[in-house]
Write a sequence for this structure.
């Protein structure tokens, strides 16, 4: 992320791919062991990565929203559950889990939440069968 300072002119596709991958990195590292490496990774998040994400949110709010939607545009489907064949219910579950991994770092602001969460609720309402809601 230090190689890409977000600006209004940063290409949407490139920035969305990078933001999505950073979100996936948060999700992948959320359950690391509490050892030397895990501690180092946890220090990197608030020192560098969350600041970068907040800059992206300030400069390109639209990209942040697009990457947090339950069905983002194709180029924002990076890593994790997008790289494997799985059901829509699994995609929704994994996507919500990814959002939960971002919350402790204050990456998700109230305005951001208000933009993407209605989409999530609608996706759950329309795409999750009643017998799988639990």
């Amino acid at each position: 992320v230090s190689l890409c300072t977000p600006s209004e002119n940063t290409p949407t596709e490139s920035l969305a791919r990078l933001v999505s991958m950073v979100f996936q990195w948060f999700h992948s590292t959320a359950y690391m062991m509490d050892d030397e490496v895990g501690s180092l990774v946890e220090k990197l998040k608030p020192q560098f990565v969350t600041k970068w994400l907040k800059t992206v949110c300030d400069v390109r709010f639209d990209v942040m929203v697009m990457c947090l939607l339950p069905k983002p545009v194709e180029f924002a489907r990076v890593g994790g559950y997008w790289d494997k064949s799985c059901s829509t219910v699994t995609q929704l579950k994994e996507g919500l889990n990814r959002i939960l991994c971002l919350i402790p770092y204050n990456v998700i602001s109230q305005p951001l939440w208000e933009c993407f969460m209605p989409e999530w609720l609608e996706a759950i309402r329309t795409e999750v069968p009643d017998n799988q809601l639990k």
Summary: The first helix runs from residue 12 to 29.
